[in-house]
Specification:
The structure holds two protein chains of two kinds. In chain A, helix 3 runs parallel beside helix 5 and helix 4 runs antiparallel to helix 5. In chain A, about 45% of the residues lie in helices and about 20% in strands. Chain A has five domains: about 120 residues, Four Helix Bundle (Hemerythrin (Met), subunit A), CATH 1.20.120.160; about 110 residues, no CATH class; about 60 residues; about 180 residues, Histidine kinase-like ATPase, C-terminal domain (Heat Shock Protein 90, 2-Layer Sandwich); about 130 residues, OB fold (Dihydrolipoamide Acetyltransferase, E2P) (Beta Barrel), CATH 2.40.50.180. Chain A contains 20 helices and 22 strands. A six-stranded mixed beta sheet of chain A has the order 14-18-19-17-16-15. By secondary structure, chain A is an alpha+beta fold. Chain B has a single domain, classed as 3-Layer(aba) Sandwich (Rossmann fold). Chain B has five helices and five strands. In chain B, about 45% of the residues lie in helices and about 20% in strands. Chain B is globular, with a radius of gyration of 13 Å. The chains are: A alpha+beta, B alpha/beta.
């Protein structure tokens, strides 16, 4: 029977990536002064599993490389060596290397060979492993001329290991054939019936093989019981010597003892050598961009979530059969029943949808988990002491969003560490704690998930930013920008204030790309900063990309949809409460604040401005930064809508984030509040704001 | 039907072993570590136990040692899945009462032939 092993590859990859994550986080947490045995064990186990799986599923380069990693770990685990800082570095590099190799192989490519070979050399220097000698196939087939006599006298406890002598005889018979095996048993040792214990073995056997077979094959049969039996293999060929089975064992033991000794001797010098090498590799590594991990195409789902899904489907089936029964003999008297059934169906659908959505949700700790390592490495590279704090790790987020937010987050953290945090002398001079802090925080707010990347560094330098922006002609020379507005300039394309372009960030392709990536997820980013206190980048993302709770509104016979989460309130106002600012631009006093007003019909050019109606319906929404009021003709119902991309099917339209199909089959456009908001921004303060990238 | 308990903390290995054995007509139950295996073993009977050595919570050697104390597990074959390098693991396993071992990496055919060998 042949089994197609490729069906297990995906799960092997997932499990291996998880194993590597475990190794990494345990390595990062390791305290060299107090090495926890269980920690080393956990790391070892992860490496061991990867090696075993890789070997089994035919990923030899991974298996071979992991072997050296495992060997060193094993020596640490068994107390032959103590964990050292340079070992941790080497292990961490190996984790990266393995990740790369696994990604390559997952993508069906040959893994990179150079890096593992290089790391392997370092391990070998530590382990003092010369190239492993290829074990010669033992050619001791001499003397199998006429056959063999095997004298087997088992120890009494043989049966207690589950080994059954009869099984071995059968096996031997299978090798040599029916006619060539004679078995003689000796019952001399069987005690009196009263003292006979059935659990013990009192028999002895002579097995005579009258056929030419290699001794190796015969020994293989008894491989498992070598220590539970006294075995003698005698050649039936009188001219050849008898071969006591223990002889080669002794030799083996002696040679392995010798090699252990030699390892111990050379150890001190070899460690020094690797220390130097390790730093070299580190410097090299920084120049190479980290390979992007292949997006995994499957999700692990907890049984609970699946169970609740099945439960929900059960409910749905019940409702369906109830409605089916109603439909088959319906009269008006049962209308109430029908309505009840339909509302139940609606509830079922919503619950089902929520459960399905939940499957895609993963805690953000998956995205956060890579940062301890990143911060550690970068801290070493920049020579800054950095403490990473992560909060809200259990906040759940759609898997797709999570995968796409990962890179922007890395960019932000790098940026904060490079530009945000001051150098250690600067921090001391400023009277701050020597150790800088980077905080990653995630939480839910309304229908959004908010991720903050904060540092307690120098904060944004407004003068410098402004000077640069003017220099690059991103804003007019004469402007009236508030500090808050200046901060947002860092998101403009081509903006970088780094004096020297460093490897870590500041190639001038920074923040605008981050912003673009986040906008692609229907998210927003802003920065808040305070001189000498630090900066915080705030990312807001929708929880999911597929479904939206919408408020349907009507404007000129067209139906538009507002995302329900961004609506603050809907009110009826009289036209007289509007104050004109400039031609066609209005603000309104809503309680104690002024909000800009926009007429949706004007935004989309649906009709000529019409001042006739006195009563207006106003939807107040929370935009990126402030509230705005949007005038519509009428409010319709609220419903969940499935977002269809307008960009994919038509093209990107400013002010519209997508479209959906309503119950009656018509298409309704979904309003993009943040871009409506931007259309308005210049009006409110009547000041020259920087032009933003569309 | 011949029933086998397959114990491994690695899901891919466990699935591979289980799939192979089921395909050959064995009844297979899976456990992801020694503790779980012991729990399952207590409520069932098996004709053979196949266990990985390196596992969290309870490793394969401890599992074998514990199982041998259990009613009904005194004589049944217990095989360890171990790597070539782990010579002393084999010894420890034997002392704990393991019947034998299968050396990793192995392919499904090797696994089946060994199992058949043991079960006769």
């Amino acid at each position: 029977m042949s089994v197609d092993l490729s069906q297990f590859h995906q799960i092997f990859f997932e499990e291996s990536f998880e194993g590597l994550d475990v190794m990494e986080s345990e390595l990062l947490e390791m305290d060299l002064d107090d090495v926890n045995e269980e920690t080393v064990n956990t790391i070892f186990r992860a490496a061991h599993s990867i090696k075993g799986g890789a070997g089994t599923f035919g990923f030899m380069p991974i298996s071979e490389f992991t072997h050296v990693v495992e060997t060193l770990l094993d020596e640490i685990r068994s107390g032959q060596r103590t964990m050292q800082a340079n070992f941790i570095d080497l292990f961490l590099q190996s984790v990266d290397c393995l990740r790369g190799m696994l990604s390559d192989m997952q993508g069906g490519n040959e893994p990179e060979a150079e890096r593992p070979a290089q790391l392997r050399k370092e391990f070998e220097v530590i382990l003092n492993m010369a190239a492993a000698p290829i074990e010669d196939e033992d050619p001791s087939t001499a003397g199998d001329g006429q056959g063999w006599l095997i004298k087997m006298s088992p120890h009494r406890d043989l049966l207690l290991t589950g080994n059954e002598p009869f099984r071995m005889f059968r096996e031997l018979r299978d090798i040599v054939g029916d006619d060539c095996l004679e078995v003689t048993s000796y019952c001399d040792d069987i005690p009196d019936f009263s003292s006979l214990t059935p659990e013990e073995c009192f028999l002895k056997w002579d097995l005579k093989v009258t056929k030419t077979v290699p001794l190796e094959d015969i020994k293989a049969v008894f491989e498992w019981v070598e220590d539970e039996c006294d075995l003698e293999y005698l050649s039936l060929d009188n001219t050849s010597d008898t071969e006591p089975s223990d002889a080669d064992n002794h030799i083996e033991e002696a040679s392995s003892a010798a090699s252990t000794e030699s390892v111990a001797e050379v150890e001190p010098t070899s460690v020094e050598a690797t220390e130097i090498k390790a730093t070299e590799v580190k410097a090299e590594k920084s120049a190479k961009p980290v390979k992007k991990q292949a997006e995994s195409s499957s999700i692990r789902v907890s049984i609970d979530k699946v169970d609740s899904l099945i439960n929900m489907v059960g409910e749905l089936v019940i409702t369906q059969s109830m409605l089916g029964e109603l439909g088959s003999n319906f009269d008006l008297g049962r209308l109430a029943k029908l309505q009840e059934g339909l509302s139940q169906l609606e509830q079922n659908t919503r619950e089902l949808q929520e459960s399905v959505m939940k499957i895609r949700m993963m805690p953000i700790s998956f995205a956060f988990s890579r940062f301890p390592r990143l911060v550690r490495d970068l801290g070493n590279q920049l020579d800054k002491k950095v403490n990473l704090v992560t909060l809200g790790e259990q906040t759940e987020l759609d898997k797709t969003v999570m995968e796409k937010i990962s890179d922007p987050l890395v960019h932000l953290v790098r940026n904060s560490m490079d530009h945000g945090l001051e150098t250690t002398p600067d921090r001391i001079a400023a009277g701050k704690k020597e150790e800088g802090t980077i905080t990653l925080n995630a939480y839910h707010q309304g229908g959004n998930i908010v991720i903050e990347v904060a540092d307690d560094g120098a904060g944004l330098n407004e003068e410098k930013i402004l000077r640069k922006a003017v220099e690059k002609k991103l804003v007019p020379e004469k402007n009236n920008l508030s500090p808050e507005e200046i901060h947002q300039l860092v998101f403009l394309p081509g903006f970088s204030t780094a004096d020297a372009v460093s490897d870590i960030s500041g190639r001038g392709v920074g923040m605008d790309v981050v912003r673009k990536n986040i906008q692609a997820l229907n998210g927003t980013i802003e920065v808040r900063s305070q001189r000498h206190k630090g900066s915080t980048f705030i990312i807001r993302l929708p929880l999911t990309l597929a479904i939206l709770d919408g408020q349907l509104v009507q404007v000129c016979n067209e139906t538009y949809i507002f995302p329900l989460v961004s609506i603050v309130e809907s009110i009826q106002i009289s036209r007289s409460s509007l104050n004109r600012v400039t031609a066609g631009q209005y603000v309104m006093q809503l309680r104690d604040e002024y909000i800009p007003i926009v007429c949706l019909d004007q935004v989309f050019g649906l009709r000529e401005a019409d001042d006739s109606s006195e009563n207006l319906m106003l939807v107040v929404v929370e935009g990126d930064t402030e509230k705005i009021g949007i005038v519509v003709d009428d409010l319709l119902g609220q419903q969940q809508v499935v977002i269809k991309s307008l960009e994919q099917n038509y093209k990107k339209v400013s002010g519209i984030s997508g479209a959906t199909i309503l119950g009656d089959g018509t298409v309704a456009l979904i309003i993009d509040i943040s871009s409506i908001d931007k259309k308005l921004v210049p009006v409110k303060n009547n000041s020259h704001r920087p032009e933003r990238a569309a | 039907m011949v029933s086998i308990l397959a114990v491994d903390d690695s899901a891919s290995m466990r699935q591979m072993v289980s799939f192979t054995l089921k395909g050959a007509g064995y009844d297979v139950k899976e456990a992801s570590d020694g503790v779980e295996a012991l729990e399952i073993a207590k409520g069932n009977t098996f004709d053979l136990v196949l266990t990985d050595v390196n596992m969290p919570n309870m490793n394969g050697i401890e599992l074998v040692k514990n199982l041998r104390q259990e009613e009904g597990y005194k004589f049944i074959p217990m095989l360890m899945l171990t790597t070539e390098s782990a010579g002393d693991m084999k010894m420890q396993g034997k002392q704990a009462g393991a019947t034998g071992w299968i050396v990793k990496p192995f392919n499904p055919d090797q696994l089946l032939s060994t199992i058949k060998r043991v079960l006769g």
